[in-house]
């Protein structure tokens, strides 16, 4: 019998650093639940846990960036995938997008988005952003979520069986 965790992990997901900013406050966090959801307008969705510090900053700031990680950027995924009391961006080269959210210099590609709307999605919020700008900085192969193993510590959150 197939386990839910094994089946769900066959969905092909990338790994992204979501940048947020409000006033002088900035942060960034690793996310895998990211996808395009509309052509016109050009919309993307990010599944965010509402307890993340970044969620509050995103809502206050009104926009966010999506930084696409490359295959060899596992350590960046790990770094931004943990809560930190100090500045996670210290030591990382970045520039601000239209809302001040960080665009990481070393990411494969980036999108700059404004907050369009959000919908509750179980224990996460689905934040929908309108894509305003973007670029490919370092063409290459993207990092895949399945290659991060249990870096997010989420394996135990899957149910043991399908109900
Ligand atoms: C590979 C990976 C994927 C992740 N995907 C998501 C995601 O899609 N949505 C989410 O809310 N958190 C995701 N996380 C967890 C957050 O990155 C993590 O909780 C982070 O500490 C939140 O940062 P903050 O509290 O500084 O805002 C992921 C973590 C990792 C390592």
Which tags fit this structure?
163 residues, mainly beta, Pnp Oxidase, Chain A, 9 strands, globular, binds flavin mononucleotide
Number of strands: 9
Number of helices: 3
**CATH architecture classification name:** Roll
CATH class: Mainly Beta
Order of SSEs, N→C? HEEEEHEHEEEE
Which strand-content bin applies to the residues?
A: 35-45%
> How are the strands of the largest sheet arranged?
2-1-5-8-9-4-3
Report the radius of gyration as a whole number of Å: 15 Å
CATH superfamily (homologous) name: Electron Transport, Fmn-binding Protein, Chain A
Mean pLDDT, nearest integer?
97
Summing up helix and strand content along with how strands pair, one would put the structural category as mainly beta
Shape: globular
CATH fold annotation: Pnp Oxidase, Chain A
Number of domains: 1
Q: Helical percent range?
A: 10-25%
Q: Give the distance, in angstroms, between the N- and C-terminal Cα atoms.
A: 13 Å
Low-confidence runs:
none
Question: What is bound: which ligands?
Answer: flavin mononucleotide
For the biggest sheet, the summary is: 7 strands, antiparallel
Characterise the protein shown here.
- This protein is mainly beta.
- 32% of the residues are buried.
- The protein has 3 helices and 9 strands.
- A 7-stranded antiparallel beta sheet has the order 2-1-5-8-9-4-3, with helices on both faces.
- The chain has one domain (16-145): Electron Transport, Fmn-binding Protein, Chain A (Pnp Oxidase, Chain A, Roll), CATH 2.30.110.10.
- Bound molecules: flavin mononucleotide.
- The site of flavin mononucleotide has 21 residues, from strand 2, strand 4 and helix 2.
- Flavin mononucleotide binds at residues 15, 27, 29-33, 47-49, 52-54, 77, 81-83, 145, 148, 151-152.
């Amino acid at each position: 019998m197939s386990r839910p965790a094994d089946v769900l992990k066959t969905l092909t997901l990338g790994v992204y650093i979501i940048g947020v900013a409000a006033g002088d406050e900035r942060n960034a966090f690793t996310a895998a639940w990211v996808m395009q959801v509309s052509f016109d307008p050009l919309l993307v969705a990010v599944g965010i846990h509402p307890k993340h510090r970044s969620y509050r900053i995103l809502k206050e700031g009104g926009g966010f960036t999506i930084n696409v990680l490359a295959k060899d950027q596992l350590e960046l995924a790990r770094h931004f995938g943990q809560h930190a009391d100090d500045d996670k961006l210290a030591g990382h080269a970045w520039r601000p997008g239209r809302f001040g959210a960080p665009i990481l210099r070393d990411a494969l590609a980036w999108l700059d988005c404004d907050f369009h709307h959000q919908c509750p999605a179980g224990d996460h919020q689905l934040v929908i952003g309108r894509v305003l700008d973007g670029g490919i900085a370092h063409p290459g192969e993207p990092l895949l979520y399945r290659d991060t193993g249990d870096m997010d510590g989420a394996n135990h959150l899957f149910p043991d069986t399908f109900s």
